[in-house]
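R.M. (postdoc): so does anyone remember the format we settled on? I'll just put the structure tokens first.
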């Protein structure tokens, strides 16, 4: 089966990212599209997994994470569960605050743990790539 690729403009429209965000994230090595050299310049194309990565970055930033934490979280997820970006199937994750470190850590989602964190006044950010995957898949169908 042939893989479908999307131009930067299409990727921006599908994910809700700006073209400047795509360029910046590409320059920083966060999301790496296929770049082909042509006689007159470069052609940049995004795969479906790239679209999921873009949507995940946008989600992390919309949750108030800074760029470094968002891009690190994305890298960890790609390393731990690359299948999430291919099929949307896999583990649900969450970012939670580690009290003694004053930082966020990515752990598998557990409802009881999330509730305990919230009751303790600590932030919990769900990282459910299956939901992001389904949203992008739905947009691609239309």
């Amino acid at each position: 089966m042939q893989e479908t690729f999307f131009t930067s403009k299409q990727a921006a429209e599908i994910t809700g990212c700006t073209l400047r965000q795509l360029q910046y994230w590409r320059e920083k090595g966060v999301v790496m599209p296929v770049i082909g050299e042509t006689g007159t310049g470069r052609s940049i194309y995004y795969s479906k997994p790239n679209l999921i990565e873009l949507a995940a970055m946008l989600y992390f930033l919309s949750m108030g994470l800074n760029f470094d934490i968002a891009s690190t979280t994305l890298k960890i997820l790609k390393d731990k569960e690359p299948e999430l970006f291919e099929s949307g199937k896999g583990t649900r994750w969450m970012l939670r605050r580690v009290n003694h470190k004053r930082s966020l850590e990515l752990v598998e989602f557990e409802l009881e743990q999330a509730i305990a964190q919230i009751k303790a006044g600590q932030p919990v950010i769900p990282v459910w790539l299956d939901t992001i995957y389904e949203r992008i898949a739905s947009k691609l169908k239309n």
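R.M.: ...and that's the designed sequence above, right after the tokens. Also worth knowing: The chain has one domain: 5-141. The chain has a mean pLDDT of 90.
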